[in-house]
Design goal:
Layout: E1 3-11, H1 12-15, E2 24-43, E3 46-53, E4 62-65, E5 69-76, E6 84-87, E7 112-119, E8 125-131, E9 141-147, E10 162-171, H2 178-184, E11 194-197, E12 206-207, E13 210-211, E14 216-219, E15 224-231, E16 238-242, E17 247-252, E18 255-262, E19 265-267, E20 272-278, E21 285-292, E22 307-313, H3 345-352, E23 371-382, H4 394-397, E24 399-404, E25 407-409, H5 419-424, E26 436-438, H6 460-466, E27 469-477, E28 481-489, E29 498-502, E30 507-514, H7 519-522, E31 533-534, E32 536-539, E33 543-551, E34 555-561, H8 564-569, E35 572-577, H9 600-617
Parallel strand pairs: 2-5, 4-9, 10-15, 14-22, 23-28, 25-27, 26-27, 27-35
Antiparallel strand pairs: 1-2, 2-3, 5-7, 6-8, 8-9, 10-11, 12-13, 15-20, 16-19, 16-21, 17-18, 17-20, 21-22, 23-24, 28-33, 29-32, 29-34, 30-31, 30-33, 34-35
Family: Belongs to the multicopper oxidase family.
Main location: secreted
Enzyme class: oxidoreductase
Length: about 625
């Protein structure tokens, strides 16, 4: 890996695109080289091919200061097509670098290279990067830390003595490049075999009696540690606890939070949480435990794999002092009491206690919305081409899908041009190999969304509701539109929660609740004073969450569930934010290394569009 910090002078317009005025500013250019390759790693007595960056798991941490320009050269030496998504990085007027295959770019083919250029203006906190191809996010990921421009003394909380990334992941004893192939063949029993903290499985697992290494955090009495917690697993929310210690939550998804003290943190796939921990316990060793939760029966049950690391005091044994009376023996670590694996209320309460610091918020909450969407999230099924699924044969011959408003997202395999190019070049989408379908404002029919009977696969009620459309789902928003969305989890064929991630934007989380959303009474519960801002919102099982966002970042942005199987099954849509009327509200041209709109029909249409535009704008 190569990491360089270079001080350079650019124009403000070139770096952050906020203004057409070319004001010279000094910025640091942080340069990384990511070599993606497949290596063999051995855990649990089995050697497994693993796709990683620079031979590391987790991958290298990107450590920058707010306002920096980040350049990442990706060299793909793996056998897979790759893109890297910079999860939570706002990508202001820079959708070209968002890293979603055939949404914002062509995938990086094996033995090919691609350079991402990112600006991190206006953000501080913990984000992360990961592969945006099916399955490989489990091993292709790393932390992306944005520090305040004025240093740690400008944090809106006590300056920590040390900052520590804590990445919760999972371990698979299979080649994850096969995950999507199996899924397309309707093989859906692939599962991880263990969980990890910072790539280490921990002592709950062993190989022929030899326990696996676990993550160890050495602490000094009285000092404060800022844990930057990231959930990089494919499909489980996790609870994190440290025996004998409490957390003070100070940020989530790179947005500051009013300090909130708790003994447990809930973090869903895609989310990040920053929390202070003070080493104020008696000298000794204390387990740090991460435990997944899942919906109870009758939902399908999967094996639950906890993992644990160690918080270890650098106590005065080294100086010959005796242990304090009542302190845990250094040979017997203290274990925290964990929630039950089916306890999802702890997650609900944790999120209910998060509120923002309005004085440190990047944008103010708009008072009113311009448009509103009600989006149901659930499972369904569709009939593939070439099969007969009519009548009683539907269940036997149809294929499961995940949906938003009963539409399952699907990109045609013969797409010629990424959707961002289609939008930017004003191509006709059909001639580019894709037909777009507008995400409806609401589901096609109203029903009791959280009826527990719907979770049972053998009921006539669920069979009537599950048939779904499969399409390339998009929704267009005019620049500057204020959008209210209610995500409603359903019980249809399952009752799981759904972590919904919106690229290129943050969302104000106005309220959450259980059961069916009822605007007549639930709007009155909206927090319009200090709602937290997130890029990923956890929609509770058999419940709902209301969010508001401003469509102020022109481009083509993916909105999807961060459970990998839900994403592979189609719980996604593309949000197209149109250009505004000023230079700082128009998506700039693609960078020089970005493949141009090369499709013949697209080029011809773009030329005609430009001619029409010139004719329209020419003086009389």
């Amino acid at each position: 890996m190569k990491t360089r910090r270079v001080l350079a002078t650019f124009t403000m317009a070139a770096v952050v695109f906020f203004s057409a005025t070319a004001l010279p500013v000094a910025v640091s250019v942080i340069e990384h080289t990511f070599v993606v390759s497949q290596v063999n790693m051995t855990h649990l007595c089995k050697e497994t091919p693993v796709t990683v960056v620079n031979g590391q798991l987790p991958g290298p941490m990107i450590n920058v200061t707010e306002g920096d320009l980040v350049v990442v050269h990706v060299i793909n030496k793996s056998p897979s097509n790759i893109t890297i998504h910079w999860h939570g990085v706002r990508q202001w007027l820079n959708c070209w670098a968002d890293g979603v295959p055939m949404i914002t770019q062509y995938p990086i083919l094996p033995n090919h290279n691609f350079t991402y250029r990112l600006n991190v203006t206006g953000q501080e906190g913990t984000l992360w990067w990961h592969a945006h191809v099916p399955g490989l996010r489990a091993t292709l990921h790393g932390a992306f830390i944005i520090r305040p421009r004025h240093g740690a003394s400008s944090y809106p909380f006590p300056k920590p003595d040390k900052e520590v990334p804590i990445i919760i992941g999972d371990w698979w004893t299979m080649d994850l490049t096969l995950l999507e192939k199996h899924f397309k063949k309707e093989i859906v029993d692939d599962l991880p075999v263990a969980a990890t903290i910072n790539g280490k499985i921990g002592d709950l697992h062993n190989c022929s009696g030899l326990v696996e290494d676990g993550y160890v955090l050495d602490v000094e009495p009285g000092k404060t540690y800022l844990l930057r917690i990231i959930n990089a697993v494919l499909f489980s929310e996790y609870y994190l606890k440290i025996a004998g210690h409490k957390f003070t939550v100070v940020a989530a998804d790179a947005n500051y939070i009013k300090p909130y003290t708790t003994d447990v943190i809930a973090v869903a796939p895609g989310e990040t949480v920053d929390a202070l921990v003070v080493a104020n316990a008696s000298p000794g060793r204390y387990y740090m435990v991460a435990l997944p939760n899942q919906a109870p029966l009758p939902d399908p049950q999967i094996p639950v794999f906890a993992t644990r690391g160690m918080v270890q005091y650098k106590h005065d044994h080294d100086h010959g002092e005796e242990e304090e009376e009542g302190a845990p023996s250094s040979n017997v670590p203290l274990l925290p009491e964990m929630p039950d694996q089916h306890d999802t209320m702890t997650s609900f309460y944790f999120r209910s206690n998060l509120t923002s610091l309005p004085e440190r918020r990047r944008s103010q909450l708009p008072a009113q919305a311009d448009e509103s969407l009600f989006i149901t999230l659930g499972l369904g099924s569709f009939c593939p081409r070439g099969r007969s699924c009519s009548g009683i044969y539907w269940r036997n011959h149809s294929v499961a899908a995940a949906t938003m408003n009963n539409v399952s997202f699907h990109l045609p395999t013969d797409m010629a041009v990424p959707l961002l190019d289609v939008q930017y070049c004003h191509c006709n989408s059909t001639s580019s190999g894709v037909e777009l379908y507008t995400l409806p404002d609401k589901p096609p029919r109203a029903f009791n969304y959280t009826d527990p009977v719907l979770a049972q696969w053998d009921t006539r009620k669920s069979l009537l509701l599950e048939r779904t459309r499969r399409a390339t789902v998009v929704r267009r928003f005019r620049y500057g539109a204020v959008v209210d969305m209610v995500f409603q989890s359903t019980s249809l064929l399952q009752s799981d929660a759904n972590p919904m991630h919106l690229h290129g934007h943050d969302m104000f989380v106005l309220a959450q609740g259980h059961g069916n959303y009822d605007a007549a009474k639930d709007v009155a519960r909206y927090n319009l004073v200090d709602p937290p801002m997130r890029n990923t919102v956890m929609v509770p099982r058999v419940g709902w969450v209301a969010i508001r966002f401003v469509a102020d970042n022109p481009g083509v942005w993916f909105m999807h569930c961060h459970y990998e199987f839900h994403l592979m099954m189609g719980m996604a849509a593309v949000f197209i934010v149109e250009d505004g009327r000023t230079l700082d509200s128009v998506l700039p041209p693609p960078p020089v290394n970005h493949p141009k709109c090369y499709h013949l029909n697209c080029l011809m249409e773009n030329e005609l569009f430009l001619r029409d535009s010139e004719a329209t704008s020419s003086p009389a």
